[in-house]
Design brief:
Largest sheet: 6 strands, antiparallel
Low-confidence stretches: 381-389, 537-546
Mean pLDDT: 77
Distance between the termini: 81 Å
Oligomer: single chain
Structural class: alpha+beta
Length: 590
C-alpha cells in the first residue's frame, strides 16, 4: 500500500500553497478592491451627511414659509391690502403694517426680514440691516424669476438673489404671491430674506473633513451657497445640473476643477434645491498605498509563521474546532452562552473570543431591538397624546370659570365651562373610541360657543336615530365636520342665514354620519384637492381645529381600513355634503 502523507505534511504543503496564492492575489487586487471599499463607505457616509444637511435646510425653510403664511393671512394684512386693491379707505397705516411684520420676524429668533408689496406697487418693510435690492415694482418685474411667483399660485419660491446691507450682498429670498384667503385674488407679493451665514451655520454642524466643497443649487440652476464665495449667485455647471436632474439623490464620479471627485447630492421635493458635496478622491484613498505595503509584509510574515508553527499547533486545531461546532449548534437552538474553555493556541483562542463577542453582541442586539421597538411605540403614543393633553390650559379655564361665577357673570361663565368640557373631552385618558351620544354631546358644546358668536344667524338641525346612540365610533368626528362647514362653507356667505343639517342613521353599509350646509360649496376639482394630503397643509393652517378633511380622511382609513373614509358631494341646498360611513359596533369598541 502506498504510504499516505501525514497530516503534518499535508498541512505544511497546503498552508504554503494557499498562503502563497492568497498573497499573490492580494498583492494584485488589494489596492483596487480596498480603494473601492473605502470610496463606497466614504461616499455612503457623505451621502447621509448631504441628506442630513438637506433635511435641516428644509426644516428651516418650512419654518420661514409658515411664518410668511401667518403674515400673509393675518387679519391686519388681509384687510389693509384688500382695501388698497379695491380702492377703499384703510384703517391701518404703513407704519402699522411694518411694525406687525417686524414683530413676526423677531419670533423666529433669527436674522430674517419680511417685505411686502401691495397691488399699487407700494413697498412695506421694517428697518433692518438686510433689505431688498430693488426699490420699485418695475425693477422687480425685470427679474428673471419674478414671473414664477404668479405661476406658483401662492406657494413659496426660494431663490438666490442680491440684497442690500451697506452694499450689495448675497442672500436667500423666499417669494410668494399674497392672495386674499377666501377668494385667492392676488393682493400683492411677500418676500422673506435671510443671509448666507444662516446656511453656513447649517453646513458647519455637519462638516466633514473629506469634503472639499458643498453647494446649494436652486431650482433654476443658480448656486445659492458655496464654500467658494465667488461662485455664489452664478449658474452651476450645466452638465452637472443635467446629470442630477429628475433624481432625488445619488452619487457619481465627477471632475471638479480638473481634480477627480465624487459628487454626493440630494434634492429637496419642497424647495427644489439640490445640496451637492464634492469629495476629493485622492483624500479618500491616500493611505491605501501605505496599507498595501504593510499588507504585503504581513502576508510574508504569515507564511513564515505558518511553516514554523504548524507542527506545534496541528494537534490543537481539531479538538477546539469540534468543540466550537458543538457551541455553534447550541446557538442555533437559541442557547446564547459564552464559552469558558482555556486554550493555548492564539488563533483558536481568538476564534473563541470572536465567538464569545458574537454571542454577547447577539444578546445585546436582541435586547436593544426589543427595547427600541418598545421605545418607538411609546414615543409615537406620547407624541400623539401630547397634543391632546394641555392640562395647564384646562386648569386655567376652571380658575377663570370660578372667578366669573364670583363676579356674577353667568353667561361668560357658562361659555368658559363649555370650553372646559371641550378640553376635558379631548384630554381624557382611555380609549380613542366613544359612543355616538358622547360625540353628539361634544358637538352640542361646540355649537353653544358658535351660537354665542353668530347668534340666530347659525341654524343647526340634528336628525339622529336614538337607537344608534350606544354605537361606538372614533372620537372627534362630528365637530371637525361642522367646524369645516362653518369656517370654509359659511363664513363668506352674506345676507342670509346659515343652515347646517346633521344626519345620523343606519344604512346597509353601516353607520352613516352626514353634515350638509347651504354655503358656497365646492367644485369637483376642489373636492378632489380637499381629500389630497399634499394640498391639506394650507387648509389645516387656516382651520380652527387644525384638522383638515384630508387629515381626517386618512385617520379614518388607518383605523377602519381603506374601504372607509370621507365622501364629498354637492348638497341639496347648494352647499357641500360630507358623508362618513363606519362599520356598526354597539358592544364597546373596535
Amino acid at each position: 500500500m502506498t504510504r499516505k502523507p501525514s497530516i503534518l505534511t499535508q498541512l505544511i504543503i497546503g498552508f504554503s500553497v494557499i498562503l502563497l496564492l492568497i498573497l499573490s492575489i492580494t498583492s494584485f487586487f488589494s489596492y483596487h478592491y480596498s480603494s473601492r471599499v473605502v470610496v463606497e463607505k466614504t461616499s455612503r457616509f457623505m451621502l447621509e451627511s448631504v441628506k442630513q444637511i438637506r433635511g435641516k435646510t428644509d426644516v428651516m425653510l418650512l419654518e420661514y414659509d409658515r411664518l410668511s403664511q401667518r403674515v400673509a393671512f393675518s387679519p391686519q394684512v388681509q384687510q389693509h391690502f384688500s382695501a388698497i386693491k379695491r380702492g377703499k379707505a384703510v384703517t391701518l397705516g404703513k407704519a402699522d403694517i411694518n411694525r406687525f411684520a417686524s414683530e413676526q420676524a423677531r419670533l423666529t429668533g433669527s436674522e430674517l426680514t419680511i417685505h411686502l408689496i401691495d397691488s399699487k406697487g407700494q413697498f412695506y418693510s421694517h428697518n433692518d440691516a438686510l433689505t431688498l435690492n430693488w426699490s420699485t415694482e418695475e425693477e422687480l418685474h425685470r427679474i428673471d424669476w419674478f414671473s414664477e411667483i404668479q405661476a406658483r399660485d401662492g406657494r413659496m419660491l426660494w431663490v438666490s438673489g442680491p440684497a442690500w446691507s451697506n452694499g450689495t450682498v448675497h442672500a436667500v429670498i423666499g417669494a410668494r404671491q399674497l392672495n386674499e384667503w377666501s377668494t385667492l385674488e392676488p393682493l400683492g407679493d411677500l418676500f422673506v430674506m435671510f443671509s448666507i451665514d444662516t446656511l453656513r451655520r447649517v453646513i458647519e454642524e455637519d462638516d466633514q473633513s473629506l469634503t472639499r466643497n458643498i453647494q446649494f443649487i436652486d431650482s433654476r440652476g443658480i448656486i445659492v451657497y458655496s464654500m467658494d464665495v465667488n461662485k455664489i449667485g452664478t449658474p452651476a455647471d450645466a452638465s452637472l445640473v443635467e446629470r442630477m436632474k429628475n433624481k432625488e439623490e445619488g452619487l457619481f464620479n465627477w471632475s471638479e476643477e480638473g481634480q477627480p471627485s465624487y459628487v454626493a447630492y440630494s434634492t429637496s421635493s419642497y424647495s427644489g434645491w439640490t445640496v451637492v458635496a464634492y469629495i476629493d478622491a485622492a483624500s479618500a484613498v491616500k493611505d491605501l498605498k501605505q496599507m498595501q505595503k504593510g499588507n504585503l509584509w504581513i502576508g510574508i510574515f504569515a507564511i513564515c509563521a505558518a511553516l514554523l508553527l504548524v507542527t506545534f499547533f496541528a494537534w490543537t486545531v481539531t479538538r477546539p474546532i469540534r468543540y466550537l461546532a458543538h457551541r455553534l449548534s447550541r446557538v442555533e437552538r437559541g442557547i446564547l452562552t459564552p464559552s469558558k474553555s482555556t486554550l493555548i493556541n492564539h488563533e483558536v483562542a481568538t476564534l473563541f473570543e470572536s465567538f464569545n463577542r458574537m454571542v454577547t453582541h447577539l444578546n445585546e442586539t436582541i435586547q436593544d431591538l426589543s427595547s427600541r421597538q418598545a421605545t418607538e411605540k411609546q414615543a409615537q403614543i406620547i407624541a400623539l397624546k401630547a397634543q391632546f393633553r394641555p392640562h395647564f390650559l384646562y386648569n386655567s379655564l376652571n380658575t377663570i370659570y370660578w372667578q366669573l361665577i364670583n363676579d356674577d357673570n353667568e353667561k361668560a361663565a357658562e361659555m368658559v365651562h363649555t370650553l372646559s368640557d371641550l378640553m376635558r373631552y379631548s384630554i381624557q385618558p382611555g380609549s380613542e373610541f366613544v359612543t355616538v351620544r358622547e360625540d353628539l354631546d361634544q358637538l352640542d358644546r361646540y355649537l353653544l360657543l358658535q351660537r354665542a358668536r353668530f347668534g340666530e344667524k347659525l341654524q343647526v338641525t340634528i336628525e339622529a336615530d336614538e337607537a344608534l346612540y350606544p354605537c361606538k365610533m372614533m372620537k372627534m368626528l362630528l365637530q371637525p365636520l361642522v367646524e369645516n362647514a362653518i369656517s370654509h362653507g359659511l363664513e363668506t356667505v352674506k345676507g342670509r342665514k346659515w343652515h347646517i343639517h346633521i344626519e345620523i342613521r343606519h344604512t346597509e353599509e353601516g353607520l352613516l354620519l352626514a353634515v350638509e350646509d347651504n354655503g358656497i360649496g365646492m367644485s369637483v376639482d376642489e373636492m378632489a384637492r380637499a381629500l389630497d394630503p399634499k394640498d391639506d397643509m394650507a387648509a389645516t393652517s387656516m382651520s380652527h381645529s387644525g384638522l383638515g378633511l384630508a387629515n381626517l380622511h386618512q385617520r379614518i382609513r388607518l383605523v377602519y381600513g381603506k374601504d372607509y373614509g370621507i365622501q364629498l358631494m354637492k348638497g341639496s341646498n347648494g352647499g357641500l355634503r360630507v358623508e362618513i360611513v363606519l362599520p356598526m359596533d354597539s358592544e364597546g369598541g373596535m
